[in-house]
Amino acid sequence: MNQPPEHRESKLARTVLTDPVHILAFGFGTGLAPFAPGTVGSLPGILLFWLTLDLGLYVQLAVAAGLVLSGVWLCGESARRIGVHDHGGIVWDEIAGMYITLLAAPVSAAGWVLAFLLFRLFDIVKPWPIRDLDHRLGGGVGIMLDDLVAALYAAVLLGLYRWLMI
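-> structure tokens emitted (166 positions)
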């Protein structure tokens, strides 16, 4: 029997908020946003980057690696438990992608806004090979990899921006 959307959403919210795997994969609940969960889910990546800003590049690279490695398992396990590959609410990949994008951004409000816009643009539009990666790879690797490539594209443009601004 089909349930009304409100019931399915509240059931998903209860599931997410009571399971540590889902809490993390859904970006501490940001992935439950009713509109643009990937965009909202990118915000914890900005906060995390800001919190690690003064720790130095090596620590930030370790954090980025930790986000990616843990994300492969977290995203895959969360998707398996809810039975939907790359559910829109799973945003750990956006958190990791946003964090990695910020590694290449100028440390300024304008740089961070540009990083956010570029990362979201590439994650939403999914130019080649992002769309192929998104559709061909399963599990946590597939969920994570398309956002990592979107972050790479954004980082390349941010590097070009920094070079042109010097």
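The radius of gyration is 16 Å.
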